[in-house]
Amino acid sequence: MTETYFPEGNETLTLDQFVERLEASGVVPELRASRYTPEAMSCVAEWMAALARDPDVLRGLLVDGLADFLNYQVDNDFKPSTLMLHKGDGYSLRAVLWMPPSPQHPPEVFSYYETHDHSFDFFTVGAFGPGYRTQLYDYEYENVRGVPGELVPLRFQEETGLPPGKVMYYYGSRDIHTQLPAPSISASINLLLPKTYPAHRRQYEMTLEETPEGVFGKLIAGNVDRQAQERALFETAAAMGDTDLHEALRDIARHHDTPQVRALAWQSLLPNSKHLAEDVGLVRDDGDPHVRAALSQWV
User: Which of 61, 79, 81, 190 is nearest to 127 (CA)?
Assistant: First the structure.
């Protein structure tokens, strides 16, 4: 379940001061490894609130961007509404802009109404405007096979908002949320903490299904653009029939950290395999339930 903080006081931290304090604390590797200390988490929440109190954090980001617009955020791989503030060793800081939906601001740009989890932990703090609202659930990652259409039992926690100064902590592969639109222009600041333990977990997107038995998330194929790119690459390599290409694809299918990628590689290779019986045996050796389910027609 998410943690919620309402830090008191009026301390203000610049971006540089925040980074210095965070890195000196040693808390980043602890949180990334899922070693949670309430006192340390509360301290970071206070620093996040202090950072959000500094109006120059967002102002400076926008001023710099407008002054050099052609080169603005060229290395930013996040959605258009997400702006990078700082990238450190094992963490990153980003500002997220939240616009009310309109023809100029489609909801999908801001992930409104898209129920999803994250594979990383993160702090978030309201920094400007009234903030979005969010519906919060949690679930058991270990019980999910990860197959599109699968119904995942969810536990509803609350519906809440993110006004200025409020800080929340989301646990990766545990907390699920559905963002609801901000009523007016808003911004938040996020501290992202990619996991080192447990690592290489999948992120899920789903639609909500309410049944007499409870609330479920129905898994959908997330990150469609990335999957389409991988599928095109794998299927082309498999279709060409080159031994070296097949070996490279087989290596990905056997050893990639992400089960979805392994399954996609096998799905491309098996119809073109020159060693089908051996390859099917290798599929059977993969203990991940997602891989076994995705390749059920072969095993």
Answer: 190
**Quick check: 97 and 187 in contact, CB under 8 A?**
yes
Q: Are 165 and 53 in contact (CB under 8 A)?
A: yes
pLDDT digits (tens, 9 = 90+) for 229-284: 677 778 888 888 788 888 998 999 999 888 888 998 899 899 988 899 999 999 89
Cβ-in-10-Å burial (0-12, 13-18, 19+) of 200 comes to: exposed
Q: Which two tokens stand for residue 205?
A: 């997107």
Residues in CB range of 141: below 8 A, 6 or more apart: 173, 174, 201
Looking at residue 231, its pLDDT comes to 77
Strands 115-117 and 82-88: unpaired
Cβ neighbours of residue 284 closer than 8 Å, sequence gap 6 or more: 292, 299
**Spatial CB neighbours of 75, under 8 Å, sequence gap ≥ 6:** 84
67-70 long-range Cβ contacts below 8 angstroms, 24+ apart: none
Strands 205-211 and 214-220, bridge-based pairing = antiparallel
For the segment 124-178, what is each residue's pLDDT rounded down to a tens digit? 999 999 999 999 999 999 998 888 889 999 999 999 999 999 999 999 999 999 9
> Which DSSP helix (H) or strand (E) runs through 219?
strand 214-220
CB 172 within 8 A of CB 121: yes
What pLDDT, in 10s, does the model give residues 199-229? 888 889 999 998 888 999 999 865 554 666 6
Radius of gyration of the chain (CA): 22
